[in-house]
Write a structure and sequence with these properties.
The complex is a heterodimer of chains A (494) and B (460). Helix content of chain A is 22%, strand content 37%. Chain A is an alpha+beta fold. Chain B is globular. Classes of the chains: A alpha+beta (494), B alpha+beta (460). Chains A and B meet through β1, β2, β3, α2 and α3 of A and β1, β2, β3, α3 and β4 of B.
């Protein structure tokens, strides 16, 4: 798409929307390139390059929202979209209901922003990607005890052009990559164990796979021995344990039990039919004891290399940083303009996002992060050293949480037994289960800045039709007391 | 007017430019949806999506490679073909390589694509207006979603295939909550046209559930006799079918693996002679009768584009009948070529009981509404965790006497088939969790005497 084509389409959409009486209109024109390269046992399984170009127009017309989108990008199509969006607003207004009021936002004209990166991952030749994954796969396959290896890299380069009737316009370019390898070891009696790399997805360029931001050499060299130890490990004895949770696992617990629970649209019931609601309802703001006083959780769309980081969100709101939980108390929510309007908030904090030009923007998660301890730089070893009987949890795997974000169950890539302050080998078949406020109330120790890691996911799902967002979560290692641990084998009755 | 060139012309333009084997795929979808919450409509949308995929094949050192380019909208065909050819020529040999499927042209190939718009949902919108008013009067809060999609797939190959399939897909969800948030109920339905579903019908089911929940019964975690409604069975069977991949089973990584690189094909999974099957021609659940894929995976191959999809029995008379294999792996493993099918049916010959009849035959147990946030915990047993949602009803002496708290469960759908003690007649069912991806299922209610509720969830 050239700049003139984009500008003509933006103007055509907004002029048509204004002519049709829209109180608010915004147009997004997006060019998203994504690639997946996947290998199985060092052989190429798939390599696909997908380019999505499209345009979406959202209006607020006479108190109702309307949205229309197409993959045809030109001025005529843009004007037609505005017409369709206004028609959609009129049609759905027939069902009745309350008027939509978007919270006000200052205008931000002419914003241009590029996420920090050195090499756009999409520009790296496919053959180079395959070669790197093949070399990494062969290295793992050559190690004793590794029977199978899968490897993949997901790469995305996203250009988004935004404009609204109020005068905000922005051109933004984001990149992200997620490489992962998984090794499998089999036993003679039909059993197996699998272990995946714990390198997180990041808002970085291809340089991430070249070692900038992650020590691939160490992770790949250690993985086979860790897998072999897991295969030989005893099954865990269920019960209550102190858990020292590594950031490679804790990020997901934060995502599910804090990130989603502090989305205001959920708390107000706007996701009741799908993603669910939240126990952290607005009447509990500034009073709910979410966790121990050590708990300081922030939301931001500003963190360097953050997967949710932007300059302007998909409703034209400037990116911000804000507190969600401070000293263990619920103090804030993630907002978009529509839910801010419902709640009477003066301003959104910039958490609107649409995963495609064909989808309407909804409130999505900021980078939600647990802040490390201040003062002395407590290490993970320090936390482990204070535990008499516990488990050290590394890497995320399975996750599940209820529709109000109370009851959760997580597994991990590896669980090390802690005995008298020292690691004492791995155990298998572990799942930990808790209620959110009980779990965060049991937070007794935080690692310092040296343990902090920005992890996250490409695949956070929400909304109908379903949308997928990438989001980062930073956290230190942390100690939780007396968390319920299940033996997954016993849960299956075997 | 879409502003896009006719899809058959795009297919022919791609194939005319290919100087070797090539597949051209156009997937065009028209969608309309309305979402509502808190007794008001919220978001909505109409959209046109078109994805064009060009798959070029080229001999390379050691075999045959595939290059894939996939783009949206009014594509530059020359550029796409060049990109796909370049990736094929510089690519690695494909493990799934096979000669392309030969064939002829569908007579419908040149017809215009299917279409939809918000008019399809006009009955839903008018129904909602009344439902919102009734909900306000009754102290209920309604939320939900209605969507309709018509997806047209055109597939052409340099071996002569010209195939076309139009797939209508729709779903309607309705959640009712008491204004204080202590009670909730859900009803949902899949439909190709919206002619056979209505807000009012779902509203009745939701009102019944909320009424049952006016009496609250607190229960502890433990094993309970449960009656799983068809919607819950749908999610569990979709998870089971998803795990039925031949290659991964041979690699020792699934519940269907046997020692020594073998699979459990032919093993008895349940004493009851269940049939879990798929058929593109299943009445009311019709789906694509040929394979169309833009990417290869462990059980699907781009080389197999155009492969006819036959009826398949995943579980036949209680025995594991089939696992998914693409042609290349099927040949290597001496297994039957088995592509995925976009519908799923579970039945037990002779089972005729309705859900209400099974509830009436329950001395003491739990009637579930649906399952949610289902995730795999242990692939070797297909142990799944998840939660009950929007209604766990306590049944005593054949009658619902109240609603219990929600639970987290840990269960394997393979084990559930083995432990089921009663099965009803299958009906069309929309899984709450996986219905978003597998819309076309027909499932029976199941009675399980010892369902593992691992812990209590305070969610309501």
């Amino acid at each position: 798409m050239d700049a003139d084509q984009i500008e003509r389409a933006r103007q055509a959409a907004l002029e048509a929307a204004e002519r049709l009486g829209a109180d608010h209109a915004e147009v997004r024109i997006e060019h998203i390139r994504s690639q997946i390269v996947a290998l199985r046992d060092a052989n190429l399984e798939t390599a696909a390059d997908d380019t999505m170009v499209g345009m979406g127009v959202r209006v607020v017309h006479d108190g109702s929202i309307g949205f229309a989108a197409t993959v045809a990008v030109d001025a005529d199509a843009a004007a037609a979209l505005a017409d369709q969006a206004v028609a959609a607003a009129r049609t759905t207004a027939l069902a009745g209901g309350r008027r939509v009021e978007l919270a006000p936002e200052p205008t931000h004209p002419g914003v241009e922003w590029v996420a920090p990166h050195r090499t756009d991952p999409i520009t790296v030749p496919l053959a180079d990607k395959v070669a790197l994954l093949e070399a990494w796969s062969r290295r793992l396959l050559d190690a004793p005890g590794v029977d199978h290896v899968t490897a993949h890299v997901l790469a995305v380069s996203e250009e988004k052009h935004y404009a609204d009737l109020a005068g905000t316009s922005a051109t933004q370019h984001r990149v992200r990559v997620h490489p992962a390898l998984s090794a499998v070891a089999l036993t003679a009696d039909g059993g197996f164990e699998e272990m995946r790399t714990v390198a997180p997805p990041v808002g970085r360029g291809w340089e991430y796979l070249e070692g900038e931001g992650w020590d691939w050499e160490t992770e790949l060299s250690e993985l086979p021995a860790l897998l072999a130890a897991k295969l030989a490990a005893p099954s865990v004895e269920g019960g209550r344990y102190d858990l020292v949770i590594d950031p490679t696992n804790l990020w997901l617990t934060i995502h599910e039990s804090v990130g989603h629970a502090t989305e205001l649209d959920r708390a107000l019931g706007y996701e009741a039919a799908y993603a669910g609601t939240s126990f952290a309802t607005p009447d509990k703001l500034d009073t709910l004891e979410y966790g121990s006083v050590l708990m300081h959780v922030t939301g931001d769309r500003t963190a360097e290399f953050g997967l949710a980081t932007v300059a302007i969100d998909d409703e034209g709101v400037e990116s911000q940083s804000f507190d969600l939980v401070r000293d263990g108390i619920l103090v804030g929510y993630q907002l978009d303009r529509a839910t801010s309007g419902v709640a009477g908030r003066a301003r959104s904090n910039g958490c609107a996002f649409a995963d495609s030009p064909l989808h309407i923007p909804i409130q999505r998660m900021a980078n939600v992060s647990l802040q490390p301890a201040t003062g002395a730089d407590t290490t993970t070893d320090d936390l482990i050293g204070g535990v008499e009987r516990g488990l050290y949890v590394v890497g995320d795997k399975s996750w599940s949480i209820d529709m109000q974000r109370y009851n959760f169950q997580f597994t991990g890539q590896r669980f090390f037994r802690i005995v008298d302050g020292r690691l004492d080998g791995q155990v298998r078949d572990v799942a930990y289960q808790a209620n959110t406020t009980d779990f965060w109330g049991s937070l007794r120790g935080l690692g310092g800045p040296s343990t902090y890691l920005l992890a996250g996911a490409f695949n956070c799902g929400k909304g109908q039709p379903g949308q997928v967002a990438a989001v980062s979560h930073g956290c230190p290692s942390a100690l939780f007391e007396q968390v319920r641990v299940l033996n997954a084998r016993e849960e299956s009755g075997r | 007017m879409s502003g896009l060139p006719p899809a058959p012309d795009v297919i022919e333009a791609v194939l005319a430019r290919a100087d070797g084997d090539c597949v051209a795929l156009v997937e065009e979808s028209h969608e309309a949806e309305v979402r509502f919450a808190n007794n008001t409509t919220t978001t909505n949308g109409v959209r046109l999506d078109r994805r064009v995929t060009v798959i070029a094949f080229s001999p390379v050192d050691g075999g045959l490679a595939a290059g894939i380019a996939r783009r949206s909208g009014a594509v530059d065909v020359d550029d796409m073909v060049a990109a796909a050819v370049h990736d094929a020529r510089t690519g690695s040999p494909a493990e799934d390589a096979k000669p392309l499927i030969p064939g002829g042209a569908d007579r419908s190939f040149d017809l215009p694509p299917g279409d939809t718009d918000l008019d399809v949902l006009s009955g839903v919108l008018s129904g909602l207006a009344g439902a919102f008013a009734r909900a306000e009067a009754a102290g209920r809060v309604l939320s939900g979603y209605a969507e309709h999609q018509v997806a047209t797939t055109l597939l052409g190959t340099t071996t002569g295939l010209r195939l076309r399939h139009v797939q209508p897909t729709g779903a309607l969800h309705l959640v009712g909550r008491s204004r204080d948030g202590t009670r909730s109920a859900w009803a949902g339905a899949g439909t190709p046209t919206f002619a056979d579903v209505s807000v009012e019908r779902l509203e009745e089911a939701v009102a019944r559930g909320l009424g049952w929940a006016e009496h609250r019964v607190d229960l502890d975690a433990g094993r309970y006799e449960v009656v799983l409604p068809p919607e819950a069975v749908a999610d569990l069977m979709v998870a089971l079918a998803e795990a039925a991949t031949g290659k991964q089973a041979e690699e020792g990584r699934t519940v269907f693996s046997a020692p020594g690189g073998r699979t459990r094909l032919g093993d008895t999974l349940s004493a009851l002679p269940f049939h879990l099957w798929s058929d593109p021609a299943a009445a009311g659940l019709e789906c694509a009768p040929f394979l169309a894929t833009a990417a290869s995976s462990s059980d699907v191959s781009v080389f197999d584009n155009g492969l006819p999809i036959d009826p398949v029995e995943w579980v036949e008379g209680g025995k594991l009948g089939r696992l998914r294999y693409h042609r290349a792996d099927a040949a290597r493993s001496h297994a039957a070529v088995t592509p995925p099918v976009d519908n799923l049916v579970l039945d037990l010959p002779g089972a005729t009981a309705t859900l209400d009849e099974m509830v009436a035959a329950t001395e003491r147990g739990l009637l579930l509404t649906c399952l949610w946030y289902i995730r795999e915990v242990d692939p070797t047993t297909l142990l799944l965790t998840g939660l009950t949602r929007d209604g766990v009803y306590v049944v005593e002496e054949g009658k619902v006497v109240g609603a219990a708290n929600n639970f987290r469960f840990n269960e394997s759908p393979v084990d559930l088939l083995a432990r089921a003690t009663e099965v009803g007649a299958p009906v069309r069912a929309l899984g709450r969790e996986f219905g978003e991806w597998v819309n076309r299922t027909r499932m029976p209610p199941l009675r399980v005497p010892d369902f593992n509720m691992s812990s209590v969830s305070p969610a309501s």
